[in-house]
Design goal:
The chain is an alpha/beta fold and 407 residues long. The protein folds into three domains: 4-219, Rossmann fold (3-Layer(aba) Sandwich); 245-322, Tyrosyl-Transfer RNA Synthetase; 332-405, Structural Genomics Hypothetical 15.5 Kd Protein In mrcA-pckA Intergenic Region, Chain A, CATH 3.10.290. Helix content is 46%, strand content 15%. It is built from 19 helices and 13 strands. It has helices at 4-12, 21-34, 53-67, 80-83, 98-112, 127-130, 135-142, 147-150, 154-161, 168-171, 173-184, 196-208, 245-253, 260-267, 272-283, 289-304, 307-322, 344-350, 357-365, and strands spanning 17-19, 39-44, 71-76, 121-125, 188-192, 215-219, 332-337, 341-343, 369-371, 374-375, 382-384, 387-393, 397-405. Helix 16 runs antiparallel to helix 17 (307-322) and helix 18 crosses helix 19 (357-365). The chain is globular.
């Protein structure tokens, strides 16, 4: 293992809080002395099929713990996922079926290991213990936490004051996450800042069950590509780790300039000296932000693919946006329709370019839909089915659509 000072330097990079830091130091000293790795926990609820760069802020911290010699334990919340984390929520989450949760969990695991080392990771579904608990055991767990403590949460407190319904099952979420820590004997748990209440609850529950409480590391919530809201698929400001290289690169190029340093710090392995230089260059405006963004985009694509794909994505971006040329590869979509004309929204859904017509209406309002290099302003536009059309969605997506009237 590395020395205490070396480990702390790595652990603290990008971290918001360590609670309590003196306990982490003591745990690390003991781990070094006994050559026994700490158990580093994080839980993920598979409430959507993909993970994005916002998720990787914590995943990358897990990877760093692996690299300095500790044991990472990933909890996939097949049972907590059916409740849904109420953190930061202004209303009850829609409940997913167990089948949906399991389907999402499969892709989550595949994408986790784009970041963390699979050979050094212990994976558990929390259904391993929750599915076996009797009602008596559940009541015993519930008796260890008070309603007053639950209502200390800002989100619950606000909803209670505003008379917005809080379902009883939501109150179980922090207890369930806490019990996960008991079952895997966590020494450290990592989570976003908005998870702080849940992480602190685990310390209390571990003590009740006779365990030494875990240390908490909170990580910042990553702003999305809009620079305003947290990165989330539901908002549309996300960058998925499984997206094609040119899509990842293009989205990086769209972020506001003031996010460049944050993304370098939280999403890349760039050396500390280089990171400080980027910060200085940006603050004194000695470097064009576009140059820094291209470097950032290439670095992130390289991490999830390889250098060749990163260079190719950069070249493609420059070709399309700097030189105003078309990309070399444009997906071709074929579709049939039984009428000679079709509404543009239905066309793009039937052709498989988008999932929902609402996305098309949003793009038109933003001036982001082009057909044959002409911007579309009419949300109700109908176009001929027959023939070939070059469609551009937003800044990066191009499709060649070939339509045919059904006979």
């Amino acid at each position: 293992m590395l020395s205490l000072e070396e480990q702390l330097k790595i652990i603290k990079r990008g971290t918001v809080e360590i609670i309590p830091e003196e306990e982490l130091i003591r745990k690390l000293e003991k781990a070094i002395k006994e050559n026994k790795p700490l158990r580093i926990k994080q839980g993920y609820d598979p409430t959507a099929p993909d993970i994005h760069l916002g998720h990787t802020v914590c995943l990358r911290k897990l990877r760093q713990f692996q690299e300095i010699g500790h044991q990472v334990v990933l909890i996939i919340g097949d049972y907590t996922g059916m409740v849904g984390d109420p953190s930061g929520r202004s209303e009850t989450r829609p409940q997913l079926s167990y089948e949906e949760i399991k389907k999402n969990a499969k892709t989550y695991q595949e994408q986790f290991f784009k970041v963390v080392d699979k050979t050094k990771t212990e994976v558990h579904f929390n259904g391993e213990w929750f599915s076996k608990m009797s009602f008596q055991e559940i009541m015993h767990l519930a008796s260890k936490f008070t309603l007053a403590r639950i209502l200390e949460r800002d989100d619950f407190s606000k909803r209670y004051k505003e008379q917005i319904p809080i379902s009883i099952h939501e109150l179980f979420y922090p207890l369930m996450q806490a019990y996960d820590s008991v079952m895997i004997k966590a020494d450290v748990e990592i989570g976003a800042t908005e998870q702080k209440f849940n992480l602190l609850a685990a310390r209390q529950i571990q003590e009740i069950y006779g365990q030494e409480p875990q240390v908490i590391l909170t990580m910042p919530v990553l702003p999305g590509t809009d620079g305003v809201q947290r990165m989330a698929k539901s908002v549309g400001n996300y960058i998925g780790v499984a997206e094609p290289p040119k899509e990842i690169f293009g989205k990086i190029m769209s972020i506001p300039d003031d996010l460049i340093y944050t993304y370098f710090e939280l999403l890349t392995d760039i050396a500390e000296n280089d990171l400080l230089k980027i910060k200085r260059d940006f603050e004194d405006k000695s470097t064009n932000p576009m140059i820094l963004k291209k470097r950032l985009g290439k670095e992130i694509v390289r991490m999830y693919y390889n250098k060749e794909e990163a260079d190719k994505a950069c070249d493609e971006f420059e070709k399309v946006f700097s030189k105003k040329e078309l990309p070399e590869e444009i997906p071709i979509k074929h579709f049939e329709h039984d009428e000679p004309e079709i509404w543009i929204g239905h066309l793009l859904v039937k052709a498989g370019c988008v999932q929902y017509t609402s996305e098309i209406r949003r793009l038109i309002k933003q001036g982001g839909l082009y057909i044959d290099n002409k911007r579309i302003d009419d949300e109700d536009l109908k176009v001929p089915v027959e023939g070939e059309k070059l469609v551009k969605l937003g800044k990066r997506r191009f499709y060649k659509i070939i339509g045919k009237v059904s006979r």
